[in-house]
Design brief:
Length: about 350
């Protein structure tokens, strides 16, 4: 376990796809797991005492507190907005439980120990397990929300990791085996880290949309589920870069990508495949939903100072995917030409419709 934890820290040093925030959170999880392992060993040592030492109930309380804290920290890995109010709200059960754990030796509410150093259970004996289960549910829901618009394999991998960790804990609990869970957590976190790292490698770092490689990979792997594609091109990005600088162009890309992401339906994924080129893959989605999605995106863009051209095509079993993409592109260029003509008819200067 220690070998794996140290290896994860070493790997973090050469990770190019993860943000500094995610690296800090991962290191925090590693530190908490190491602390849990040390505390568990010390608590095991105190069990050998002939008489009760105050150290034992304190170590037990620390253990009960560390497990949900590790899960809360892991949940933040996929919290795209950082530490939000929702994250602070979810910490309330843990905060409330802390005094119950640390003063249980005197209140006898959770667990406590006789002077002979024997274990005793109070009326809230199952509170640590309930708290742990609560944060497992929070972790699962957070990951389902995070991976819902990505490929089925992403969701399958995330479920495998979570189910494996839960299965190991339940195995210990069912056989009444008081084991150190840190080894299970470490293996699960390593797998989870690999999943998140691979997922981040599929992302376009500027817009947080999926990148070009992901687009072609998903086209190949999910061809049977894809029912439509949307081609999008941002107008006048070159003009923004040439006149206002690349920072203005980068900001424009981030803004329009946010509009696409916010209006993308659950079964659809948005990709940035070029400088100002975007694609959306729609799975098990009908034409009405696709048209509605495009309408909502156009309405969202009206709240910004940017304009994009859209084109879509529905998939058919007798039409190759390459032809479907070509149709979507041609309709997008037709939309671009119509936007240009409308602006010129209104006397508005068209700088460069790239």
């Amino acid at each position: 376990m220690l070998y794996e934890l140290l290896g994860l820290v070493v790997i973090l040093g050469v990770s190019a796809h993860l943000s500094r925030r995610m690296k800090k959170l991962t290191i925090t999880v590693v530190a908490l797991l190491f602390l849990e392992s040390v505390v568990f060993s010390l608590e095991q040592w105190t069990q050998t005492f002939e008489k009760l030492s105050l150290l034992r109930p304190i170590l037990t309380a620390i253990l009960y507190s560390l497990y949900p804290l590790i899960l809360m920290t892991l949940t933040l890995l996929t919290e795209t907005n950082g530490m939000s109010r929702r994250s602070l709200f979810l910490a309330i059960p843990w905060i409330i439980s802390l005094p119950l754990f640390f003063f249980s030796q005197w209140t006898h509410l959770v667990v406590w120990y006789h002077e002979s150093n024997h274990f005793a259970a109070g009326p809230l004996r199952y509170l640590p397990y309930i708290l742990f289960a609560f944060y497992i549910v929070v972790f699962i829901v957070q990951n389902l929300r995070y991976f819902r618009s990505y490929t089925r394999m992403n969701r399958v991998a995330a479920r495998y990791i979570v189910i494996g960790a839960i299965g190991g804990v339940l195995f210990y609990f069912y056989f009444d085996s008081y084991k150190d869970y840190s080894a299970i957590f470490t293996s699960s976190i390593l797998l989870y880290y690999v999943l998140v790292y691979i997922h981040m490698a599929r992302m376009d770092q500027m817009t947080s949309l999926l990148n070009r490689q992901s687009f072609y990979q998903d086209l190949a792997m999910e061809s049977q589920n894809i029912t439509g594609v949307i081609s999008i091109d941002m107008n006048e990005l070159k003009y923004l870069n040439d006149t206002l600088g690349h920072e203005a162009g980068d900001m424009a890309l981030e803004v329009v990508a946010g509009v696409f992401r916010n209006n993308c339906k659950e079964k659809c994924s948005a990709y940035r495949i070029g400088g100002d080129e975007f694609m959306i893959i729609c799975r098990n989605t009908n034409e009405f939903d696709i048209r509605t999605m495009i309408f909502n995106m156009k309405e969202g863009l009206k709240q910004t100072s940017y304009v994009c051209s859209f084109g879509y095509a529905m998939c058919s079993a007798d039409v190759p995917m390459e032809e479907t993409l070509r149709i979507a592109d041609s309709r997008m260029y037709a939309d671009k030409a119509a936007i240009k003509k409308d602006l010129e008819d209104r006397g508005i200067t068209v700088h460069n419709r790239d």
